[in-house]
Design goal:
The structure holds 2 protein chains of 2 kinds. Chain A is mainly alpha-helical. In chain A, 63% of the residues lie in helices and 2% in strands. The radius of gyration of chain A is 61 Å and the shape is elongated. In chain A, 0% of the residues are buried. Chain B is an alpha+beta fold. Chain B has helices at residues 6-13, 72-80, 87-96, 103-136; strands at residues 17-23, 34-40, 51-56, 68-70, 84-85. In chain B, strands 4-3-2-1-5 form a 5-stranded mixed sheet. Chain B is elongated, with a radius of gyration of 23 Å. Chain B starts with 5 loop residues before the first helix and ends with a helix. The chains are: A mainly alpha, B alpha+beta. Chain A binds chain B through residues 2, 5, 7-8, 10, 12, 14-16, 18-19, 55, 58-59, 62-63, 65-66, 69-70, 73-74, 77-82, and chain B through 21, 32, 58, 60, 64, 76-77, 79-82, 86-88, 91, 99-100, 102-104, 106-108, 110-112, 115.
């Protein structure tokens, strides 16, 4: 029944099998639930391991003692947990901690307000400067535009003057006959000759 | 994530808390290593646990010692919250001295001692018989 002990001591399987009945189902193996038992196991009667009555009695006593001690231990642990929780919530340490927390909160809020005020001042300065700059720029832009308008007007006037001067030489219905006669009287010769060295010769054969 | 209150949690898990051994690193064959773990009873042995409370290495090291570790503070907390330790954990803690010695440890030791004494006496009796036979002869 018991394996011979080697160096290792109790084999691992012993430690893991729960005492008090077969709680583990056979997971490994080739047979399923519906397979019949083997022929070699035909007349087998399964017999539980033999129990020594003396040992059983002694074991029972040991178990009751063990149960007593375990119950006492459990109650002790429970009490300790409850006491810790109580101290956590309503102990002296908790009060001090709460007070420190409120103080810290107050100081942080004060610091936050100071920061906000400082940022407000900086922001106001910045906004003021920016508006001033924008106004300056606007003024400059207006001036520039006026200047441009002035220049445009001047140019237009110049053009008008030029046109007026040219208008004196225009051909109108009254000048028409006069101009035709003038043109016919003075034939203009636009022909000229030029050689590769750039000498111009205006003398040609008139038609 | 749905956060349930403790009452609803109890109804959801439908089991109590246990402190038991869970196999760690089960991708390696023939090299077991256990974690002592607080988990719900109905969970699989190796699946999600609530807190790890220690470890146990069943194979002895080069100095022929098996190493176990416990976080006694947290074990006390979970026992106080109503966790039941499993048999191997109870035995380990008994051997460590935190719990009283488990009755089965004592009975196993006694059985083993009886066996060794029997084998010794039988061996001594055999050698004595051999000695007697030789003397007779």
């Amino acid at each position: 029944m018991f394996k011979v002990l080697g160096e290792r001591g109790l084999p691992v399987a012993r430690l893991l099998t729960p005492r008090g009945g077969p709680a583990l189902q056979a997971v490994r193996g080739r047979k399923s639930r519906t397979d019949p038992p083997a022929k070699s196991k035909e007349g087998r009667i399964k017999v539980p391991p033999p129990v020594d009555p003396v040992e059983m009695v002694v074991l029972g006593e040991r178990y009751t003692e063990y149960g007593l001690i375990m119950r006492a231990l459990r109650l002790e642990f429970k009490e300790e947990v409850l006491r810790k929780k109580y101290e956590q919530e309503t102990g002296s340490v908790a009060e001090e901690r709460a007070r420190q927390d409120t103080e810290e909160h107050r100081s942080l809020m004060a610091w936050n307000d100071a920061e906000n005020r400082r940022m407000l001042r900086i922001r106001q300065l910045r906004v003021h400067n920016e508006t001033e700059e924008a106004e300056l720029k606007k003024q400059v832009a207006i001036l520039q535009r006026e200047q441009q308008m002035q220049e445009l007007i001047k140019e237009k006037e110049k053009e008008i003057l030029q046109l007026q001067e040219e208008a004196k030489n225009f051909i109108t219905l009254e000048n028409l006959d006069q101009r035709i006669e003038e043109a016919l009287d003075n034939p203009k010769n636009y022909n000229f000759a030029i050689d590769k060295e750039g000498r111009i010769v205006k003398q040609t054969v008139l038609k | 994530m749905v956060h349930l209150s403790s009452f609803l949690l109890k109804k959801y898990h439908k089991g109590h808390m246990v402190i038991r051994l869970a196999l760690a690193g089960h991708k390696q064959a023939n090299r077991p290593f256990y974690r002592i773990v607080a988990a719900y009873n109905k969970r699989a042995r190796d699946s999600k646990y609530i807190e790890q409370l220690g470890s146990y290495d069943p194979l002895p090291n080069i100095y022929n010692e098996k190493l176990v570790s416990f976080n006694f503070d947290r074990i006390k907390y979970w026992m106080g919250c109503g966790a039941h330790p499993s048999k191997p954990v109870e035995k380990l803690l008994g051997l460590a001295g935190f719990f009283p010695l488990h009755p089965m440890t004592i009975t196993e030791a006694e059985r083993q001692r009886a066996l060794t004494e029997q084998s010794h006496t039988s061996a001594a009796g055999d050698s004595l018989e051999e000695g007697h036979k030789q003397q007779e002869v």
